[in-house]
Structures are given as structure tokens and as C-alpha cells.
Amino acid sequence: MKASEVSKSAYVIEVLHLYLSQAETPTRHSRSDRQLAENFYEQQIELEEVEAALILATARRLLRSSEAPKLGPIRSLHYFVPVIEEVRQSAISADYIAYLRRKMAVAQSEF
Asked: Which helix (H) or strand (E) holds 54?
């Protein structure tokens, strides 16, 4: 969905909801997170691009080798900015994002 198709407040609420629903993110957003979500709206970043980036980055964290050092928790929506830029510059299919969702669901159920 294009940012221009929803109100700014609805867009920001959805971005923050997507962010907080990811593994290893805080239970509440900060003012900085809200401001960044508003910036995404102003930049006309599609909600699907934001969601794909959040899923991609979370999958990379959760599905890495068990022998790799443990990563600290995600403390800000800013963590995802480079991945949002990556998603916007490349063609990541909806099928791949659906695959990552399923893979993460299986991995999380094993914990």
C-alpha cells in the first residue's frame, strides 16, 4: 500500500505496529521511532517495503548459525533503515517474504 493511500497517522501506527511485532524489539516505541515512521511517510516508503525489510532483518538475526555470537536486542526502528534501503533498491519477491515468515515461525516454535 502506498503511503499516499492512507493518512499519515494510520501509516505511522502501522509502521510502529510492524516494528514492535518483530522478535527482539522493544515492547514500546520511542519518540525517535515515531519521528522516523513519520519520515518514512514523507519519503513515500510503501508499507510493504517497510514490512519486507523488518521481516528480512529479523530473519537474518533469528536464522543465523547457533554458533554465532548472540546479538543484543534491537532498541530502535533506526536499526532497520539500511535494510529498508536495501529492499527499496532490490526486487525482493512477496513469495520470498512469505517463505521467511514461515521459516521464522518454525524456528520460533523450536525454542
From this structure: helix 47-62
